Structure formats: C-alpha cells, structure tokens
Prior knowledge:
The structure holds 2 protein chains of 2 kinds.
Chain A: H1 2-27, H2 33-46, H3 56-64, H4 71-74, H5 87-123, H6 133-137
Chain B: H1 2-27, H2 34-48, H3 53-64, H4 67-72, H5 75-80, H6 82-87, H7 89-113, H8 118-124, H9 131-141, H10 145-169, H11 175-194, H12 199-228
Helix pairs in contact in B: 1-2, 1-3, 7-8, 7-11, 7-12, 9-10, 9-12, 10-11, 11-12
Amino acid sequence: MKIIRIIVQIGVLYVFFLAGEFLQKQLQLPVPGSIVGLLLLFALLLLKIVPVKMIEEGSSFILAYLPMFFIPATAGIMNHLDMFSGRGLLLIGILVVSSVITMAVTAHSSEWIASRSKALGNRRTFVPLIRSKKEKEA
Amino acid sequence: MNVLLALVFILLSVGVYLLMSMLYKRYRLPVLLPALTATFTLVVLLLGLHISYETYMIGGEWINRLLGPAVVSLAYPLYKQRHVLWQNLPAVLGGTFTGLLVGMFSGLLLALWFGFSKMYVLSVLPKSITTAVAIQISGNLGGDASLTSVFVMIAGFTGAIGGPYIIKLFRIRGESGIGIGLGTASHALGTAKALEYGERAVSMSSVAMTVSAIVGSIVGPVAAWMLYH
Lengths: 138, 229
C-alpha cells in the first residue's frame, strides 16, 4: 500500500513540474519549469490548498535517492573528456577555487547578517559597525 | 529492442548507484560521494563497452525525466522549515546574493586573468547556478551550453565533495550557513549533500539554490554586458 501511495504522490509532484513548465513557457520566465513548480507547490502548501499529506511520502522517497537522479545528466561528461587535459585542467582549477571561495563567503556573510539582525532585534537601537570582543561573545 | 535497451540502462544506473551508496555508507569518505563514484563507474563501463552517451540515454533519459519532480519535491523540506526560513530571511537572501556575485565575478576574473577567450569566460560565468538555468544563461550570452553543463557539474562536485573540508578550513559553524553556502556554490548537488547535515541545512540550501537561479538569470546578463559592452 505504501508503495502505491509513493507512486501516486510522485505523480502529483510530476503534475507540479508540468504545471511549472507550462507557466514558464506561457509567461516566458527566465527560470526553468522545475523551479517554477517548486515555488508553486510551496505556495499552495503555505496556503493550505495542497495538504502536506498529499506529497509527504513521495517527496521523502525522492529526496532519499536524490543524487541518483543526477547520474544520467552527469554522465554526459563522457562527451567532454578533453576537459581533463591541457588548459582544461587550468579551467577546472579555476572552477574549484571560485566555488570554494563562493561557499566560504556565502556561509560567513549569511551568518554575519544573522548575528547582526539578531543584535538589532534585541536592542532596537543603534548598533555600532565594529563591536567589541566582549559583545561578540555575548 | 529499444525498450529492452532502455530497461538495461535504467537497471544499470540504479544498480551502480545503490552499490556506490552502500560503499559510501560503509566508509563515509567525502570522495566516495555516490553521485561522483556512480558517474565515474558508469562512464568507465560505457567507454569500455564502446557504448555512446546517446545510446545510454535511451534508458538514462527516463531517470533524467524524474529530475524535474525531484526539484519540485524540495518544496517539502522548505515547507517543514518555513518558520526557520521566515526568521532567517535577511540572512538567507543576503548570503545568497553576496555569494552569487562572488561566485560569478571570481570565476569570470580568474578566467580572464588566465587569458581564456570570451566563449570560455561566458561559459564559466553561470557555473554556480543549477544546470537548467545555467545553460540557458550561457547560451543566451554567447557561451557554450554543453561546456557550461560540465562547469556546473565541477562547481557542484566541489561543494558536494569538498564541502566537509571547506566547512572545517573556513570554520563554518551554523547549520544554516552550511546549507546556504552549499546551495549557493553548488546548487542541487550541494543541496543533496546538505541532506547529511539535517533538515534545516537542506531547506536553507534549496532556498539558496532557488534564489540564486532566479537572481542569477538577471545578474548574469548584466555582468556579461558590463564586461563585453
């Protein structure tokens, strides 16, 4: 029984994906249909139009195997094996370095904003740009 | 005949993936990430058996089609974590936006610095954005869509495999920060990795991935225009 529910729920997710694709084409949106579908489902969940129960098991199932769905797409790298020689290696280095910087900067800037907005919310007064060490620890 | 072939390739992909995720669960080494090891094994098998990617995709396409609903299913952890999301909205949006700019410009400047041609620079530009959006941006700007899809993958694997090391090296502590960082730098592959850090990290990561896809499709063309106008 659970298997049937999972299959039906994946069908529901598929319908949202198709609806996202449709909206994307009709409205000429710059983002892909799958992301439009995600936002659509999220909105309908928030508005309680779609009950969570309707997608809970299907989503959990897909998410448990998420990396598997990328494999056919990533295997496409076999048509670009020349990337792994000569100047291609330099390019790979650039991509790796840039991605490492991106992740580190993103994580720290978001945590910095989080700590500042918390401080603002607590005091509701002027927060100096440079805080003393004691304040930071508090 | 094609149906049989499709079935064989589907079973092969699923089998290789399950085997590799068993290996990963056993040893827990970041380099054994199933998305990487399964892709590697599959590519070696296909090359060894002289099967072209196009032939493999007769079956592979069926798994690929589930990528759409798989992205949609990220709405579920997002919904479950909605309260955390509202509380942290400035941090999520601010971090993602900063990271997106840093990601685009660092890749762009490095590629320019090493003297890569316009076509390569423009193909590098959207690398931190999820594939479907990145190839659209790249194609529209005059980059090469298939090169971009490989670059997107490399950016994805950097976060998915290097993530644990980056977290240690740069002392990233909060689960939210980890999620936002993974989603912004490494899109869906990063989000799949974020699953290992908990529900909060996944939902933050999927928000970051979504926001950077939306913002990136606007900022990307602007950055290219600034550079080559």
